[in-house]
Design brief:
The structure holds two protein chains of two kinds.
Chain A: H1 2-5, H2 13-23, H3 33-41, H4 45-67, H5 70-86, H6 97-116, H7 142-148, H8 151-161, H9 164-174, H10 180-187, H11 191-210
Chain B: H1 10-30, H2 37-51, H3 62-88, H4 90-96, H5 110-132, H6 145-167, H7 192-197, H8 206-211, H9 222-234, H10 240-253, H11 258-274, H12 281-293, H13 297-310, H14 318-323
The chains are: A mainly alpha, B mainly alpha.
Amino acid sequence: MAAIATTAARLNARQWSTLSGEMDAPITDETTDESLMLRYVAGDAGAFDILYARHRAGLFRFIHRQCRVRERAEEIFQEVWMNLIQSASRYRVEAQFRTFLFTLAHHKLVDTFRAHGRRDAVLVEVNDDEPVDGIGNRTIEPQVRAESGELGAAILRLLDALPAPQREAFLLHEEGGLTVEEIAEATGVTHEAAKSRLRYAVAKLRDGLADYR
Amino acid sequence: MKPHTTPEDDAFLRDLAEVRSAYRNASVSTSDDGPRKSVDDAIRAAARRAVHAGPGTRKRPWVNAWSRPLSAAALVVLTATITMVAIDDPVYVEKQVSPLTVENIPAAPAKAANAKLDAAVEAVADTTAKRIAPTGKSSETAISSEGRAKEKRTADARVAQAPVAAATPNPAAPPVYAPPAPALVPPPEVRVAESVAAPVATPSVAPAVAAAPLAALPPPAPLAARALVGAASAIGAVSEKQEKLARRENIATSSAEQKRADTAITLSGTALKDATSNEPADAWIQRILVLQQQGKTHEAAEELAKLLKRYPDVRMPEALRKLK
């Protein structure tokens, strides 16, 4: 917590230039996440509230879709934001705020999964050679499809059946709005690996949805 | 989300749009829009605690505001203190200028050094005797090579007289101004007048010595000058000024002025004899070693006996044990 108190003095010239140009302007919908974060680092708690409101739902869904248990998702969600608050002094404008935030979430999920021994959710394992036309071992049974009925519920089940790295790539793309390059940065893999994961995930979801149409 | 512009990704983008639409509908239908309100409140409260206040209201801690001025002041005080200690503390000066001892003298030219030191001691004896007498003139302090043979015959008696005269200060004699020795070693061009006046600790000898023109002094022998430094370091405990002067003489005699150094040697030799009252053991031993090297075994033995009487537990070098 105390790190933020000294962060204002550490901001580089570019950050101060960016901040000084927007600090006096009122916060609007067009105010970027980076400006809000710099405002918060400079002591504007209101900027954090806006920032939190922007990414609250997306980040929670990103976490919840992967750990599946709501209570645990809330716990991880809170820890991610606490980490963000504590590491705000390390934030630099060069990095997109959402990349920064979802990178924290990714690391927290990896730590949690490792701590709980969830092999099926180990995000660091990659199996990009898996055939696109299959959902793997977690293919949804026909009776399940019949029970779900709705397309929305179906895609959630399909998403849950994806390998963890592919599911994470898709969620980072959809919930965080991260590009392939940003997904690669957040998950610590190459651009090609991130792109491959996202393509596999989309292809599997599309093929799975075809059964419901 | 940033658009993908690669043409070959059209199929992927088409699939992605289809999947995204379904995913958005699923998110809305499940009302999975975030954590409980208590979690939100906890996070926002933590964020507010971290910043403590809004922008512009945070003040710099007083430690930050005063850190630089305090650091500068502390630096100045420390620098001044160290400088003062370095100037005033003679021990510090001692460490800066290590005395040249007998052991440091090269062994090869020892005979030449001894011979010149003998001549220097005799010359200072003669000079001291002349200075004690009221008729002493400055030109008389010059020691010519022709007169050395004659002076040598009477040197012992004069040397014996000199300490006696020095030990009995003449109240009528004017006080001698001995310039304070600098804290550090003076430059080579140090005035020889200082080097002559300073070692004369007794008031009766000092005026004549100070009056002697330095130009008339005999040129020094380098080795004898080094021996002088060893002897001068031996009498260092008598007076710090004397010791510092000896160092001055060391520097002065390192030049080509051999006559001046010879005189300085003899003066130091005279003062050396007067210095035994408070002489420390180490300096005393050094002096005895000098006497031993000069072949004055008898005198060295006497000095050793005095030394052992005064310092029974003194640790002697190997060279003096045989003498004992």
